[in-house]
């Protein structure tokens, strides 16, 4: 059984009470990946296998090549942006280091505990639901300011329509309800209710290289 839930251990996670297993709690901040070609290939491949597709082998091969090129372009973009200073208003993806999966909002599925919220889970490839805009939790920072370690931020999903003014935006949200099968943890979902996430630096990008010894 693969557990792809995103949860928070309520007692741990502060400098004075660090997590018992750091690798469970590390996220790499990544630039947004593009998914259009891969999505088209995945969709058409399912239809092709079930016999519903109008595409022949040659067309499917072209879709596969386009999807692979898109993945290569994503990797190139990742290398190009390494070391860039992240600013408020930047759209990013959060890669969970241990599972190698992206934090993702599934718009059309309710969360397990808080049924009026959207489901948040960890996805292997990611999709447009994995894009989050970093916004300041407080008004003394504005869009364009640099995000510093220790800052409190809101993570607003790019894929969710947040056009309504005067209301709290849908954002990555920590539920008030404890998990039934994990009584010291709460669910992470997506809801139009404020949750502040504090940024703690674990490693700088240039410290996370194969030739650097890490303890």
From TrEMBL:
SUPFAM superfamilies: MIR domain. The lineage of its organism: Eukaryota, Metazoa, Ecdysozoa, Nematoda, Chromadorea. It is a multi-pass membrane protein. The receptor contains a calcium channel in its C-terminal extremity. Its large N-terminal cytoplasmic region has the ligand-binding site in the N-terminus and modulatory sites in the middle portion immediately upstream of the channel region. The keyword Ion transport applies. GO terms for molecular function: calcium ion binding; inositol 1,4,5 trisphosphate binding; inositol 1,4,5-trisphosphate-gated calcium channel activity; phosphatidylinositol binding. GO terms for biological process: release of sequestered calcium ion into cytosol. This is Inositol 1,4,5-trisphosphate receptor.
């Amino acid at each position: 059984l693969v557990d792809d839930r995103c949860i928070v251990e309520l007692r741990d996670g502060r400098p004075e009470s660090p997590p018992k297993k750091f690798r469970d709690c590390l996220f790499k901040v990544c630039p947004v990946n593009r998914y259009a070609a891969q999505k088209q290939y995945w969709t058409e491949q399912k239809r092709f296998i079930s016999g519903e597709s109008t595409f022949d082998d040659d067309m499917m091969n072209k879709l596969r090549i386009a999807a692979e090129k898109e993945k290569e372009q994503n990797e190139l973009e990742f290398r190009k942006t390494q070391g860039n200073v992240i600013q408020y208003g930047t759209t990013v993806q959060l890669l969970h280091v241990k599972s190698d999966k992206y934090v993702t909002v599934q718009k059309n599925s309710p969360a397990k505990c808080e049924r009026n919220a959207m489901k948040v889970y960890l996805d292997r490839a990611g999709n447009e639901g994995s894009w989050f805009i970093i916004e300041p939790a407080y008004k003394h920072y504005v869009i364009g300011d640099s995000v510093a370690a220790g800052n409190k931020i809101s993570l607003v999903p790019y894929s969710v329509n947040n056009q309504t003014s005067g209301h709290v935006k849908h954002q990555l949200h920590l539920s008030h309800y404890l998990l039934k099968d994990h009584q010291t943890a709460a669910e992470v979902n997506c809801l139009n209710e404020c949750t502040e996430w504090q940024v703690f630096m674990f490693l700088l990008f240039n410290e996370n290289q194969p030739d650097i010894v890490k303890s």
